[in-house]
Each structure stands twice: as structure tokens, then as C-alpha cells.
Amino acid sequence: AAGPNLISNSTFDENIDGWYRFTAGIKRDTNVYKGSSGASMYFPPNDTNRKIYWTKKIKVTPGHFYTFRAYFRSTNVPSAPKLNIYSYNAAGERMRYQQEWFSVSKSDTWQETAMEYRAMDNVSDVLLYIGDSGHTDAELWVDDVYFGEGRVTLEQASSSKAPFTGNRVKIDSKGNFEVNQNGAFKPFFPFGITNTSLVTSDWAQKFSNQGFNYSLGSNSSTLTNLKAAKSQYNPNGMMMMASTLYQTGYDPESIKNAVNNLKSSSASDAILSWYYEPTDGNKKLSTYPQIKGAYNAIKTADTESPVFWSLGQIGFARALGDTADVTGIFRYSNYLKDGKKQIQVNELGSGFKIASNLQGVTKPNSIATISVTDDQGAPKPTPAQLRALTYHAIWGEAKGVMFWWEKQANGSKIDTTDLWSVFPVLRSEIQTILPIVRQGTPGFSVNVQTQEDNKMVDVLAKEYNGDPYIIVVNTEDTRVNATFNFVGLPFAPTEAIEIFSKGDISFEGNNISTTLEAYGTSVYQISSIPVPDTVPPSVFIASPQGNETVSATINVLALATDNVLVDRLEFYVDDLLVSTDIFAPYEYLLDTTTYTDGAHALKVIAFDSSGLKSETSIIVNINNKPDPEPPADEPVADPPPTEKDKPKPDKPAPGKGKDKIKPRTYTKGNSIKINSRNKVSKARLYWLVKDNSKKAFVKLVVQKRVRSKIR
């Protein structure tokens, strides 16, 4: 639910009931507004006071999801308004701080922003903050602010994503990478490690042996070392994200020279992408001309590898969509528990889903950044949390992962951490499920219910090659018992093939139940073990009726049903098989003139796909005796023909009495008449209709005193 509008006539009046401003009075603008309040929050440029507005505390329920939604308008692109949520326990202690930057993609236009929030254990209240980060000098307006329970569903339709195509790297509209290896493009899931120092040949080989297939670098020496680092995971060596802007800044000529220097390297085919962040050295958001100028400079020098940028804020994916070929998401997700920072697993994938749906995001969001150090504003994850973070990024449709390590230059080595052994396992698992992640479609859905209060499990449902798969992530730090109800499966699930599993599983009806350990992840292929079919089909003869007297040619029609599938029907006359029909309506054309007059048995046997059968039979009486001749002593003279009865061109002459008319082909508009008047006449009519993929209609008009049997 959207929740109440926190800026309305009842709350956003001149007294600003429910809203506060840090160190200064709130500013209202009655000339620029979006909603019914007739005013907006106004952030003036170059204001010496901090530009922050906040609400009174709002009650929340632990474990529940909420959406913080607002509409922004700015004079500059990019701007940097922020949505912030502070979490408090019942004692009033702050437990968590969560923020998200946004930017409009078009100046002086109202655009929606949204932020997903999940109340953790022991959270009682939240404060909502709206602020201008001060990263840009721009006027900013905020109007129509909502906070309500439920996960993010943006009102704006997602835009079409423009794929990137080069001779070295391709990226489709979903963000899937393909890399040219030995003259052929092959699927590539970026699985990278970054650090702030030079990647020596020794470290490049260590990285390759652990399953990483790219790293961040800025010079030809690092590029050469990475390409030479071959392993079982990387038979062609590793690749490099080239971070040239760390050395060049935003000077276009310096950027072009740096790009050309790397392109001249003998290892230039190992360039995965060009990497930059749209901020200056002080993390201040760069101006749009600077960012766009850097992009244009790179594209002028090289068109074979994509330009990738990552700032970590989902709102900038929209505002800066035309300054990159692919974007990434980096989110610091943590909260306090027992006085210590804890990882918040669910937000990384959620951020990807939000960014992918924002209107105006013309470039695909592809690579998720996960911090594996403890000096990035969040604690270093545990091995279990690292697995959960990676799988949750995939749940959010990330098509690559960058693990961020910044301690190498300070002498702290990542291979001494407890995370080192996790990476090769993750790389192997991702490689196995890569076709499902890349090409799977949402052919069904899954409803999730947990037995424990306020706990959550996220499930990614994918259909690949006709088989359903689920990727399950427990984002909790405790064991969770979850039940999955499948919607849209063509069968009741009775078997789960464990691709990778960290929990027990059982079946009941259309549900699957599983127990997941803390931060547990599982991948299952769902299937159905066929249940033996013990129910035979049902069948009865609809026409003719039992003991009915029949003559000439009749249509024997049978109806059959089965709990699985009817395979065929067999028709018998006097226990002799005369026809088999595999398509409904099941019928047989019986010429009774080939049988003697009297009682005959009609029997139909129905078979289902399991070979089970049922039969039914009736008795019919055949009577093909000729009709009596009219009395000879009662001749009736034919009246003189009228104009209506006279022959006409392309029409046959009328028949008289028992006269026979020779067979002929009749076309549209032609007809045949047998005008017997007071005599007895017989006519047997047949049609042969050619199938020319069009409809054919046969019209028969029979006047009184004529007996007609037609098929």
C-alpha cells in the first residue's frame, strides 16, 4: 500500500505539522508543487544551513516491508536528493541508518523515486529524512511523500534497454555479457575482485585460481598480468576493468591518450570494460557535462568495450543512463544488533530490481558490488553472508558481481581472510546455473510463507528449456522454515532435484516446504514423478439410440472422457473392428445397406494414454426394405409445367417420378430439383468437398414427401 500522503492539506500547512527542518525554518513554495497540498518542500541553492527535513516517528512492525516514496523536481541534472530512514528500538536507541540518493533525469520535471525498507528485529519506530546532499548547486522541490507497508512497485513503466555491441564484448538488453574468445562470442558472468594497488603477476594468478575472471586496473602492466593468469576457471586468462579516470580526471584529451595507450598493449583483447565513478576525488557528484564528456572521450578512442560506471545509488542509473553502456549497484547495507554492525542481506538485490524498473534507465543494470572489507561503511561479511549476498544479487537479476577489497595497499591480504575459500565454490555454482540466470523466463510464480514470525525468504523463479527452477535465499541470521506455493506450474511438484542445496525439503499437495539454515541458499529443479493412472476412460454412444431402427448410411457418434488423456476409440459392428478414431468428435459412418436387415450390435471401446480401456454397446435394428410403389390404378397426370419448373441454363432438368439424374459437379448457385408431385421419389445425395484451407458450406433444401438421408 502507498500509505498516507505525508504532504497534504491536513499536515503540510503553514505550521508544517509533522515535519521539521534542521537548524532553520522549513521553506514552502506555493508556486511550484505537484499534489493537492498546494505547496512543496523547497531546497534553495547555496543555502548555508543543512538542507534536511524529517518527520515525527512512525510505528513499524519488525520483519515487515515498507516503501518510502517521494516525487522530486530539480533545476539540474544530476541532482542529489536523498531519502533516509533512521530505525529506533522501543528504548529510543538508533539501530540503523539507511539512505538512497536519487536524481531526476530531466530538469524541471516531477519524477518518482522509491526506496524499500525492511524493519529488522527489535525495531519499533522510524524517522523519515529528506535531504539535499549538497553535491550539486541546484534548486530542489519535494512533494507527495508516502510511507506504507509493502515492497516497492514503481508507478512508472520500465524503459527499453539499449544493448551494447562491439567486436570484443557484447551486452544484451538484460545486462548479459558475451566475450569474444578465440573468434567466437561466449557467455560471460563477470566475477571480479578489486583492490587499490597494482595487481602483480603473483596476485593475478592467485585471483585466477580462486575463480575470479576480472579485476580493476589502470595500466598496461596490470592488463598483461591479468591476461597471463590462466587457470581451470580462466583458460584464456583474466580480463580487466580499465579505470583510466582515476589518473586522468575529466580532461578529454588525457582520457583519450590513456585509452589509446591501453589499446596498443598486446593484451588489449583482455579489456572487459572502461570503469569510472561519476564523482570527483571528494566524492562530490560531478556535473553532467563532465560525466558526459568523459563518456564521449572514451567512446571516441574505443568502441569495442562498453563503458561501465558505478556509484551505488539506484537513482543515478536513471539520471546518467546516457553516460554509460552498462551500470552497477553498490549498496552499504547494515544495521546494529547487540551493539554491533550487521549485514542487511536483502537490500542489494532489491536495489537492482528497483533500478531496473525506473523509467528512463535506458542502459541495463548488470554488475552488483559487494564489499568484502570492513572499512567501507559496513562490516566485512561472514562466509555465509557472502554466499547470501551473492545469491541475492542474482535474485535481483544482477548479471555479474564485483567484490570490493581495499586493504591490499595497506598490507592486509584477502587470502588470509575466512572468505578466501568461498569464492571458488561460488564461481563453480554460478557457472553451473548460468544458463538459467541468463536465459530463464518467468514462466511461473512462487508464494512464500515462513513459519517463524517476521522472517523472510526470497525466491527467484525461472523456467529454462521447459523445466522450472527456483533460487532460494534466506536473508535471515537464523534458521527459517518456509513453504513455497507454486502458481502456474503445469503439474503438482513432487520432486526437487538439488542443484545446490543447504536445507531439507518435503512435499505436500502443490506446496514445497524447506528448512534453510541462517543465510542459507539453495537451487532446485522442480519436477513431478508421474502418479500411476488407475482410472479407465468413460465412454457412451450418443447416436444412434439403443433399439433404434436405422437404414441407409448413419453416423455412429461416441463421447469419451478421461482423467489424463483419451488415446483412441475403436468401433465394432457385431464384434468386428470397423474403424478407429483418435480425434474428437469420435464417429464412424456406417453403411447399413451392407448388412442384413435385423438386429445388430454396435460396440465402442475407449483407450486412455495409460492403456486402460472401457467399452459400451447397443443394439440397432436395420431395415432397408424398399418403399412400396404407388397403386397402379391411381395414375395421376402431371400438371403442365410452370415457368418456375422450366429448365434454365446451368441447371439440370427437373426429375419426374423415379427418373435418375446423372452425377455432375455443382457450383455456387446451382441446384437440382426432383419434382415428383404426387409420386414417390428417392434421392441419395453425396458431397465431396475439397479442403483448400477455407470454409465450405453445403445447403440442402428438401421439400415435403421426400425422404433424404445425408452425410
Automatic annotation (TrEMBL):
Keyword Manganese: no
Source species: marine sediment metagenome
Basic and acidic residues bias (residue ranges): 641-662
Residue ranges constituting the CBM-cenC domain according to the UniProt record: 5-130
Protein name: CBM-cenC domain-containing protein
Coiled-coil intervals, chain numbering: none
Keywords from the UniProt entry: Hydrolase
Region (Disordered), start-end ranges: 623-674
Pfam families on file: Big_7, CBM_4_9
Molecular function per GO: hydrolase activity, acting on glycosyl bonds
Record's keyword annotation contains Hydrolase: yes
